[in-house]
Amino acid sequence: MEIKSVELKNFRNYSQQKVNFSSGLNVLEGKNAQGKTNLVEAIFLCAIGKSPRVNRDKDLILWNENLSKVTINYEKNSGNKKIELYLFSNQNKAIKINGVPIKKMGELMGEFNAIYFSPDELKLVKESPDERRRFMDIDLSQFNKNYFYALNKYNKILMQRNKLLKSSNTSSIQETLSIWNEQLSEQGSYIICERLKLIEKLKVFAKDAHAYLTDDAENMEISYVGRVGENKEQIKQLLKADYENSFEKDLNLGYTTVGPHRDDIKIVVNGIDIRHFGSQGQQRSAALSLKLSELEVFKFNIGEYPILLLDDVLSELDESRRKKLLDKISNFQTILTCTEFNENISAKVFKVENGKVNL
After folding, report:
1. What pLDDT is attached to residue 61?
2. How far apart are CA 249 and CA 21, in angstroms?
3. Residues 6+ apart with CB under 8 A from 60
4. pLDDT bucket at 121, cuts 50 / 70 / 90
5. Among candidates 208, 202, 213, which has minimal Cα distance to 317?
6. CA 359 to CA 353: how far, in whole Å?
7. Stretch 171-197: mean pLDDT
8. Which three-class secondary structure string do you get for the chain?
9. Residue 273 — very low, low, confident or very high, per pLDDT cuts 50/70/90?
10. I need a labelling partner for 126 at 20 to 30 A (CA). Which of 7, 68, 337, 356 fits?
């Protein structure tokens, strides 16, 4: 998969800009706050329909404008494609794929695949389980539309169950809770099965990537933390029992305390849980290893590498790991941002200044 061009109109600090990318490494070089991150943000927005930096679409629109547009022309194994994404200040976003408007966000999933990594992604390792669930959910949604839909269904059912738990109508709770438990178990068991498959692949690729980055000095192991079972039906029954057994606790707290929305990934390096006891260097290497392993998982699942977006990552790495990273990514298209690029490697370098991109 390769991006041919990106066009921005009224996006962040870009009024009008077109950038033609090449195969291999593309570097966006410039001082801070010039628009480098905004450009890679726009690219990732076209992959998952959501910014990795802000929750509100209107925050992405150039000041004093009401409409923003991002257009990506790209090539994948199935041919040339185009995504047009429109952002409005007073209504929901609109998306076209090859000129045809989509009706549901799930239709975007898997059309254009990208992996985004910035220094903020260190929270993937060191912060709450929310970040690691988000990591799994974004990956799985990009190469499995059914997962995206199941996750949406689960979250809607979960909201209904939590709303019921907060209500004061005891008879209504007792009458309808079993219905929500059944529906949560059905969707939740599918979610867990797909996450387990993902972790089985990631654990192999992450182990290899980490050994490569650390010259075999560190051994990295990852595992899924949550309800597991031999198959979907067994997980469904176990989840159903979990929901039923947690009823009193859930009722007292007013929310559902068990299920895949509470699960996690455990990351261990040389026998140490690095979320709690790892150094910042270990946490950074582990996060990068997970991102590199994502590339291989995408290649395994869709038959081609996604676009890799590296936002100000080189400054966080020592010379040895910078070289290893750049060697590793030479086989696929990468768009990298930095303040200054002095690496001895072939790359197309763009200068970014005040919302303008030039060679």
Report:
1. 97
2. 54
3. 11, 12, 41, 42, 45, 51, 54, 68, 87
4. confident
5. 213
6. 11
7. 92
8. CEEEEEEEEEECCEEEEEEECCCCEEEEECCCCCCHHHHHHHHHHHHHCCCCCCCCHHHHECCCCCEEEEEEEEEECCEEEEEEEEEECCCCCEEEECCEECCCHHHCCCCCCEEEECHHHHHHHHCCHHHHHHHHHHHHHHHCHHHHHHHHHHHHHHHHHHHHHHCCCHHHHHHHHHHHHHHHHHHHHHHHHHHHHHHHHHHHHHHHHHHHHCCCCCCEEEEEECCCCCCHHHHHHHHHHHHHHCHHHHHHHCCCCCCHHHCEEEEEECCEEHHHHCCHHHHHHHHHHHHHHHHHHHHHHHCCCCEEEEECCHHHCCHHHHHHHHHHHHHCCEEEEECCCCCCCCCEEEEEECCEEEC
9. very high
10. 337
What is the pLDDT at residue 142? Answer: 95
Reported as a pLDDT band with limits 50, 70 and 90, residue 185 is very high
Residue type, 144: N
Token readout for 84 is 């047009």
- For residue 107, which amino acid is it? E
